[in-house]
Model the fold of this input.
Amino acid sequence: MIADHTQTATTPHDTRSIAAALRVNDFAFRIATVNGTGSASANGLLMQAIFRMGIPVSGKNVFPSNIQGLPTWYEIRVNHRGHVARTPNFDLVVAMNNATYGRDLMELAPGAYVLFDSSWPMPDAVHRPDLRFLGVPLARLCADAFSGGRARLLLKNIAYVGALAALLEIPLDIIDTLLAEQFSSKKKLLDSNFAAVRIGYDYAQAHFECPLPIRLAAMPASDDRVLIDGNTAAALGCVYAGATVGAWYPITPATSLMDAFRMFCARYRVDPESGQNLFHIVQAEDELSAAGIVIGASWAGARSFTPTSGPGISLMSEFIGLAYYAEVPAVFFDVQRTGPSTGMPTRTQQGDLMLTAYASHGDTKHVVLYPADPGECFTMAVAAFDLAERFQTPVFVLSDLDIAMNDWLCPRFRWNDTWRPDRGSVLTAEQLEGMTQYFRYLDDDGDHIAARTLPGVHPRGAYFTRGSGHTRLGTYTEDADDYVEVMERLAAKIDSAADAVPQPVMYSGAAVQVPVVHSALGSIQATARQDARGPGEASDAGRSRVRVGLVSIGSCDAAVREAVDRMSERGLPVDYMRIRGFPFNDRVEAFLLEHEIVFVIEQNRDAQLRSLLLLETQATKDRLRSIRDYGGVPLSADVVIRGVLLGVADATEPHDTATVELRSAV
Amino acid sequence: MTTSIPKPRIHHPSLERNSIGLTRRDYEGSMSTLCAGCGHDSVTAAIIRAFWELSIPPHRVAKLSGIGCSSKTPTYFLREAHGFNSVHGRMPSIATGAGAANRDLIMIGISGDGDSLSIGLGQFCHAMRRGVRMLYVLENNGVYGLTKGQFSASADVGTKAKRGEVNRNEPIDPVLLALSLGATFVARSFSGDREQLVPILKAGLAHRGFAFIDVISPCVTFNDHEGSTKSYRFTRDHMREVIAADFTDGAVRDGGLDGAGNGHAIHADPGDETPAESPDLVPIRTEITAAYAPGSVHEIRMHDGSTVRLRKIDENFESTDRDAVYAYVRERQRAGEIPTGLLYMEPEALDMHAMEGTVARPLVDLAFESLCPGAGKLDALMEEFR
Done:
């Protein structure tokens, strides 16, 4: 029985008991607060504590583009199987924001819990007798226990962490340890935080039946996991790759990448003898300048990068074309946010897929890497510098706000000390000394890449870098044949990068057995029978089969994997390919052609990934269906499953039992 | 079709050689394709002379430009230097990056009034603020040449275009702008006055910071007519040298760093005229003076050991006070004069590297091993994310 008998007078709704099933390590909750009130550290504390219990967890910060006073939510999902993509289904809300109280309640499923501050009456805006209300007079308790308005405000957050610890069964010693690590040098703060945790904990223990049926239980701890955000990971990749020059213009959600780079450089890149920096960070006046600084530094021989977001890429586009045509390496991190224009700067999206693939005027095409999580932000940051220098061209690492700014559970990062950067074809003074003549754009070994030289090295290496028409010798031209010759080599060069970018990741459910009655799309009957054969072997004697494939990219991965697993369990096994690099290689195309129906899942309105696949592969429009979710919150598995089922149903006989069953299972 | 014609590289045996054994021809580039009589070609000639006289090894130089007539000119000098003809108005950011990566590069940027004062005004300003160590030459003709004669942002109010239109928009004056933005080396000269220009260029190359020179460089095709305030005639009639710069070289040495760890290829050992470790080093001690009546002299020792002697021509001019220089230039311009000379200089300027605390060795020369923290540190770091 869950009821707050002492607070029913201030509870705006009936407190009713609804039988709830026990669910251990498999639920989601969200904390609704006002930004600028210090809730971020409390929420991080919760997340960290659950992580230390060894339970797969994710935390999504849904925050406003504002410094103080607007609604913010922190969403935590725990799942013992590791499915921690965002879910819109919350089992509990910590409703600390009066302004969103009604909405926060409306979005809950029947039977969900509402933890609220019962110090004052809550607005009676929503009639939800089906919810379970847990009133804790957080403000009153903190006012009694602490002095100072700011301390009371901040510690109120820590008090709800304490209440949740009791309700969800988080061991207090874990929270205490985390607090001790955080406030090791501030005894007074540590003591008041300890006290605040107890206030919430004790109140919940005294007034509610703790723990709730949704609860946590420690799992065998794995040393192999870390909790890290994508921008920190990417910055670390830049440090490990040997990048020395970083230029940027502050922009959400890319800013923390350069903040992290600066922090890591302060730690690892200060010459112990002189105290001087082995790096140079320039905060540019705008993104145009940031791009120019990166190109100038790379041209002079440094590994250089800029973190930005879509608006920055728009501004950098002219320079990107220069780097492409003049063949100057450059690394761009595009941490995508919701567009177009200013859009919603603190919401996530995958809206820059087309932009980065072909940024700039004229015929241009770029190497793009698509990390799915912070682990790949680290490895792909390193790979980006190698690819940029090897192919002498701009390389984009296309992250997004969800990956970049939220903490993700990742395999521990590792480093191989024997790794050395691939600096590409760069002639040394000795090599130049032995040559009679040097021509910048002459490809003498047929790999479409011409050796470059760096300024200041040798008089024979001098050439004129220009964005105007040039011949293979590097001289200015307005001659059609000379111009075309260089452009053709550039096209071949970028195409050859398709095999150098990270390969797609294949994730297979078993192939679906579906007899085709009319045409591939005319009738698909998903029998629930599992096919024991692997992907690529979809034909059977005397019977055609239709295979369903999912294609996705970047941060959609967690939701798509969960969807694949759930559909597979329910009798619709599908294959899944996550694309990790552009230009697409043969494996990408093969997957599309091997599957009769392909769902392309992405977070933008216009199906940009699908468009790219149609442009760059032999796949046809009828083959590629689209599932899109682009409202700014991370993708959830429900959206994927619903999209696949609708698509399959669209092409299936109306009374197909498997799909009906599946739909009801969503 | 081409816009650069290679020059024959046959040298007359009697051509004078500088201290590293190079003749002036070794500092040339391709043949100019600008209009005959273009002021920019005179600036190019002055640049060639300045680099030659300073005995700077050409390959140590990076010559950078944006887009426009002026931006074509780096092709016409220092053929053994890397050149970078970037995008319109964005050369300062390329220079910032190149200088950040390799502080030993000797950078010269050539720009125009369209490039620096319109499309690239922001980059021009911020490179100055940032103290990018470079010589920045703005070849100022008040007009867009390649697009056939539109007014630029430096066109004076009342100046007449070739087709008769009169400019009504206030000009952006790069010298006043530079002074107000804290530039540490600000000069104005005239392409038709090589005697004034060459020592200023040399002083600019010796300056440890952003050295800005606005050079009035008339466009013979679109802006050299009656009624133009950027014509040869108007400039000659109205320019007034207020302070002359005489430049005396320090020792010049190929490469390396000076004792203070300040990478730059122009160095000097004050008091040691023939440093033993540089056999190819024969300091030029030719004093270059302009043919103006001498006034009071202010001698400035540069970090590389060279000396700039500033001779006041107008005794009312106070060159060490930024605000006074600003007020003076503004007042004289209102009176219809074009004050020229090395108007303002801070010999103790801090450049970008000094402000950022970058290591003395160019970043491009650092070994990967000194940049990558390695597996052990990563393992330790990972514990902080648990």
Summary: Chain B has a mean pLDDT of 86. The CA atoms of residues 164 and 227 of chain B lie 9 Å apart. The first helix of chain B runs from residue 39 to 53.
